[in-house]
Write a structure and sequence with these properties.
Layout (H helix, E strand, L loop, with lengths): L4 E5 L3 H11 L6 E5 L5 H8 L10 H13 L15 E4 L14 E4 L9 H9 L19 E4 L2 H9 L7 E3 L22 E4 L12 H12 L4 E4 L6 H11 L4 E3 L4 H7 L2 E3 L6 H6 L3 E3 L4 H7 L8 H13 L10 H19 L1
Parallel strand pairs: 1-2, 1-3, 3-4, 4-5, 5-6, 7-8, 7-10, 8-9, 10-11
Helix pairs in contact: 1-3, 1-11
Length: 347
């Protein structure tokens, strides 16, 4: 029997490691990986470097590709080389044409952005989902199954209009066994940790001076440590911290989850890592309501989320009743291709 092909669409390093974790439970299949990609003018902009602040390029794409090479995983760039029986992705902000007629599983990556004006432009006026970032997670309805982090997120997505019958509460890899991060060799303990964001690099407003001073006030003399977001301008961010919190330490490459496991207090803005802090019982600060965050916290299932998602993959792969129509653009393209082939045969 021919072995089926599965394509995993990656993105940030977190998304890439999640995809890899799921694939480990599907090793009897031909698993291939690709960095996140797009069609049309968005792809052109990404290739020219104009979207390097996003998972379509820059440091995000570089980290993803480095991980895939390091782990010796099979890369099929843009998923162009094979016919896939199943596609697994961590984002539906963009759904490339070549996967629109495939069985598709969407996996929640982490926290969703707060709803703003852009979200309602997408929701009510069908603007492109990417203008509202992750607040529009799931709104494409292009997938067959949507694997989410918790019952709290399931309720949120249902409220957003996502079909409840498509949602599975599987937990999400990297956030489903936070206790394991307590076993680490990070040298500091009992400090106040600040996880910064890449708001400014993604064209969102942030008063960094005010955020640093807010963190210093909460620390109240305790050791203050900053962990910079991977997508930040580290040189600029470090200079700001040295100016407004000269006693603080700054890290850029360390494992943020292990640092959280060692801290007493965690300060974030809109970062998913706040869930690691909540799961480990830390004192946390966020721009979201803490009680709401606690309801949303990814289920702690001892690290079985990847297996749970893989089982959903197997169910979908073996569902012979489910067939998907070709998207109109692909259908038209194929018709033209067949017509040209026929005409060439006649001539």
């Amino acid at each position: 029997m021919e072995t089926k092909n599965i394509l995993f669409i990656c993105g940030s390093l977190n998304q890439t490691t999640m995809m890899h974790a799921i694939s480990k439970h599907l090793e009897y299949y031909n698993c291939f990986f690709t960095p996140y990609y797009a069609d049309g003018y968005i792809d052109v902009l990404a290739r020219k470097g104009y979207l390097d602040f996003s998972i379509l390029g820059g440091s995000f794409k570089g980290a993803s590709m480095n991980y895939l090479w390091k782990e010796n995983l099979r890369v099929d760039y843009y998923g162009n080389s094979y016919n896939y029986d199943l596609v697994v992705t961590c984002s539906d902000l963009l759904v490339p044409k070549n996967i629109q007629n495939k069985k598709l599983i969407l996996v929640q990556e982490g926290m969703t952005d707060p709803k703003n004006f852009a979200y309602y432009l997408v929701k009510w006026f069908k603007f492109p989902r990417y203008i509202a970032s992750t607040s529009t997670n799931g709104l494409s309805d292009a997938y067959d199954i949507f694997c989410v982090a918790s019952e709290g997120y399931k309720q949120l997505f249902v409220q957003n209009g996502i079909k409840e019958e498509k949602i599975r509460v599987t937990g999400i890899p990297n956030f489903d066994n936070c206790q394991e991060y307590a076993n680490n060799d990070f040298p500091y303990r009992n400090f106040v940790l600040v996880a910064t964001s890449d708001s400014r690099e993604t064209f969102k407003f942030e008063n960094r001076k005010k955020f640093i001073e807010y963190s210093v006030k909460i620390a109240n003399g305790k050791q203050l440590i900053f962990k910079l977001h991977p997508n930040e301008n580290h040189e600029k961010a470090t200079a700001e911290i040295n100016k407004y919190a000269p006693e603080a330490l700054v890290y850029t490459q360390e494992n943020i989850h292990e640092m959280i496991a060692n801290c007493d207090v965690l300060i974030t803005k809109y970062s998913t890592v706040v869930y690691t802090g909540i799961a480990l019982g830390k004192e946390v600060y966020s721009y979201f309501e803490i009680d709401e965050l606690k309801q949303m916290t990814p289920i702690q299932n001892g690290g079985t989320s990847a297996l749970n998602i893989a089982q959903e993959c197997l169910k979908l792969l073996n569902n012979k009743k489910l067939t998907k129509k070709e998207p109109k653009t692909v259908k038209l393209k194929n018709r033209i291709k067949n017509y040209v082939s026929s005409l060439a045969g006649v001539l």
